[in-house]
Write a structure and sequence with these properties.
This protein has 251 residues and is of the alpha/beta class. Helix content is 30%, strand content 21%. Residues 225-234 and 236-247 have low confidence and may be disordered.
Length: 251
C-alpha cells in the first residue's frame, strides 16, 4: 500500500505527526554534515526536512514519486517539486551531492533499481541519506501512520541492499521510540521515551536512518568455470608401440 500525498500532509499536520517529524529531525541532525553550496534532492515526502537542512544548499529539489503524488513547494518563489519515476530521475550523471529518501524506499517497486538510479545521479563524493521503517519497531505494525505502509527493513537487509547498489553504509541513527498513539496522555511522555529508547532499546526504534557513501570501485567476481580440462597421464597401447617400432618405411 502506497502513502498518498494527501494522507502524508494530513498526518504531519497532526500533533503525532509533528512529534514524529521532530524525532526524525534529531536523528538526521546527528549524522548530517553541513556542506556549503551542495546540490540536494529529496525523494519521497521530504518537505519538512528540506526546509530545515536545505537552507545552505545551492539548489534543492523535491522529487515525488508518481504513485504518491506531488504538491507545489515552496509556497513562495519558483517551484522546486517534480513528479518523477524513482527508477528514471530527470537528471544527468553525477550532478547531485546528496539525496534524502523519506517515505520512498519502502514503497519502491524495485528498491535496488531505485538505489542504482540514485548512484547514477550522485557525484563521486555524493552521499545518500535514507529513512525507512524498522522491521522490529512498533510503528511498522500500525497502519494509521505512514510508517505502517510499505516494506519495513532491518539493518542487515538495508546494509545488503546498499552494498548491492555500490554504496558503503557510513553512519547509522534511529528515531521514533515513543508509541504511535494519538492519545494526548501518551504523547506527553514522548521526550522521556525518546531519550530512554536511544539508550536502552535502540533496536526497537520506529525508523532506521543511515547515511551511505557512493562507492566508485569494487572487485569484480570471477565466475567459476563449469568444466575444467584435467590431464591424466596414461600409458600408450603396447600394440601401437610395437607396430610403430617394426613398421617399414614407405618407399
Amino acid at each position: 500500500m502506497h502513502s498518498d500525498i494527501v494522507d502524508l500532509r494530513s498526518f504531519y499536520s497532526t500533533t503525532l505527526g509533528r512529534l514524529a517529524e521532530r524525532s526524525i529531525t534529531m536523528a538526521l541532525s546527528s549524522i548530517w554534515a553541513t556542506v556549503p553550496n551542495e546540490r540536494l534532492v529529496g525523494l519521497g515526502y521530504t518537505l519538512p526536512w528540506l526546509e530545515r537542512f536545505g537552507t545552505d544548499a545551492e539548489r534543492v529539489f523535491a522529487f515525488m514519486p508518481a504513485t504518491q503524488g506531488a504538491v507545489v513547494w515552496p509556497a513562495a518563489g519558483p517551484t522546486a517539486t517534480a513528479l518523477v519515476f524513482d527508477e528514471e530521475l530527470p537528471l544527468v550523471d553525477s550532478c547531485i551531492d546528496r539525496v534524502l529518501l523519506v517515505h520512498s524506499l519502502e514503497h519502491a517497486e524495485n528498491p535496488r533499481e531505485t538505489l542504482n538510479e540514485i548512484w547514477r545521479v550522485l557525484s563521486p563524493a555524493g552521499r545518500v541519506v535514507i529513512v525507512v521503517p524498522n522491521r522490529r519497531g512498533v510503528w511498522a505494525r500500525f497502519e494509521h501512520t505512514p510508517f505502517g505502509n510499505g516494506r519495513p527493513f532491518s539493518r542487515g537487509q538495508l546494509t545488503e541492499l546498499l552494498r548491492e547498489a555500490n554504496f558503503t553504509p557510513a553512519t547509522w541513527s534511529d528515531a521514533l521510540f515513543f508509541p504511535p498513539s494519538p492519545r494526548r496522555f501518551m504523547m506527553r511522555f514522548h521526550n522521556v521515551l525518546e531519550k530512554a529508547g536511544r539508550r536502552f532499546w535502540p533496536i526497537f526504534s520506529g525508523v532506521i536512518v543511515v547515511e551511505a557513501q557512493k562507492r566508485l570501485y569494487q572487485g569484480v567476481p570471477v565466475a567459476q568455470r563449469a568444466s575444467r580440462r584435467v590431464f591424466v597421464p596414461v600409458f600408450s597401447p603396447q600394440g601401437a608401440t610395437r607396430l610403430g617400432r617394426h613398421a617399414r618405411p614407405a618407399k
